[in-house]
Amino acid sequence: MNLLSKTALMQGFNALDQWGRFDEAFAALRGWEAQGRLHHRQTIFEGIESCVDALNGLFTGVNVGKTLVKISEPGAR
C-alpha cells in the first residue's frame, strides 16, 4: 500500500524505549492474569505427524496465538 497516496501515517513503537518500566508492566500483567482479565490463545496440533501442518499454519494464518504441537500427554513416557 502506498502511504503517500492514502495520506496515512505510520508510527512504530519500540518497547525498549520503556525499559525502565518493565517491572511495572510485568506486575500489571501478573495482576490481570490473576484476575482472569488476560486470556491466552493457542492453536494445538495433535501428534508428531502434524508438525508440517503446524509450521505451514504459521505462514497461512491458520494459527491463533501460540502454535503448539502436542506429542504426548504430560508425564507420559
From TrEMBL:
Top-level taxon of origin: Bacteria
Protein name according to UniProt: Zinc-binding dehydrogenase family protein
Organism from which the protein derives: Mycobacterium intracellulare 1956
Species classification: Bacteria, Bacillati, Actinomycetota, Actinomycetes, Mycobacteriales
